[in-house]
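Hi R.,

As promised, here are both runs. First protein below:
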Amino acid sequence: MNKKEFFSAHDPKIVSKLQNSIIGIAGAGGLGSNIAVSLTRAGIGKLIISDFDKIEPSNLNRQQFFIDQIGTPKVIALLENLKKISRFTEYQVHEIKLNEENIPIIYKDVDILIEAFDKAEMKKTLIETWFMNYPNKPLIAASGLSGWGKNEILHTRKIDNLYICGDEETNLIEGISPMAPRVGIVANMQANLVLELLLNNYENNKS
């Protein structure tokens, strides 16, 4: 398969924009792994992904991993899976716990950063650190994706360069993992917003 074949269903005018874009994903679990798959299929040129967890059996109900990858670091397994989808995205993965010191270094070249954490304290650290260092670069976060149904309350809210996808209501309950459909929906809301932000100028010029 060559590049022309892979992108044959895309509008040719957007391919170069997608291929020249760099997107960061902080977290490679339920949100992050689904976002990475969608952006790879969309044709993003480079993904920078960080996570320090290993795959557990309970992850398989909503994350883009497989039984034979249990025990493998998530970023390593995700890299393997993404390479099976496309050779036309460059992947840079970091098996590391993100903090105030390494976030600005790892993601310094990205056009957009995506928050894909489970824990509220990590979300807070990422958002605060990002806008302290890169106030003019968008960050797409998620809030409220537990349970099932209630599609009608899912939305995107914008606060300056911070975008929040989800229902902003439902909280994680200890001992009960989020369900694959709702996690996938919110992850793809985030991924879809990446494309909207990248291609906004293209759409405006086309109309």
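And here is the second one, sequence first, then its structure tokens:
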Amino acid sequence: MPPTHTDEGIIAARRIREFHPNVGILLLSQYVEPTYAMQLLEQHPERLGYLLKDRVSDGAVLVDALRRLTEGETVIDPTIVARLFRRHREADPLDELSQREREVLGLVAEGCSNAAIAKRLFVTERTVEWHVKQIFRKLRIDETPETNRRVLAVLAFLRSPT
């Protein structure tokens, strides 16, 4: 966004969240910049999306992201998720995850449902549920009425050291 074409969109999204915390926000960016996504996700990740503009050239992707946001989910562009997974990590709780659990967590970070993950990985939904439970266990994310464990798992992934 003008004038500097850097973080004005992030600033605008933060202001919207400050005054209207229940409004869904889908940020479209041309920059593969995980730190921008992290700035938004750290405070209030529900109903928040960060997609690369190239991704929304497919109308179905945009409609799906908007639908998921209205349902309270978080939607992160797969390219951002992949970049975050490639970062070097030290003393990372994610080190305990198996390769398949990392795959599942990456798809969770993209906002995929268990059914969508099962379809993509050619496994059953029950298998995905088992992997998700293992992710929660290994990341020590307990079930409480006040939290969304899927969002907390994605945040643990995004916050892990570089």
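A quick note on the second one: The helical segments are 8-19, 34-41, 59-70, 78-86, 99-109, 114-121, 125-138, 149-159. Let me know what you think.

Best,
J.
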